[in-house]
Amino acid sequence: MLDIQQLEEGQQVYIIYRNPHTQTVSNVQEATIARDPMDPSRLSLLLFDFYHPIEEDDAIFASYEEAESLFEEFYM
Questions:
Q1: Which residues contact residue 51 at a Cβ distance below 8 angstroms, ignoring those fewer than 6 apart?
Q2: Stretch 6-12: mean pLDDT, rounded?
Q3: pTM metric for this prediction
Q4: Which of 19, 35, 36, 46 yields a CA-CA distance of 20 to 30 A from 10?
């Protein structure tokens, strides 16, 4: 899992994403680290054309395999 201090703008990362419409559905998604257009001093996750603020407790991974491994541990 990546530390927030390791993140750089333009970096491709992977997250475990919970579907906001169906709370029982989660999967691993690729996201991009980008500047938040509302607060350019902050980095955000760009996912499905939406900016999500990065929080301290977000699980952000460098590889799909790393994210998938944790996903399977907790959800399968």
A1: 34, 36, 37, 38, 44, 45
A2: 96
A3: 0.86
A4: 19
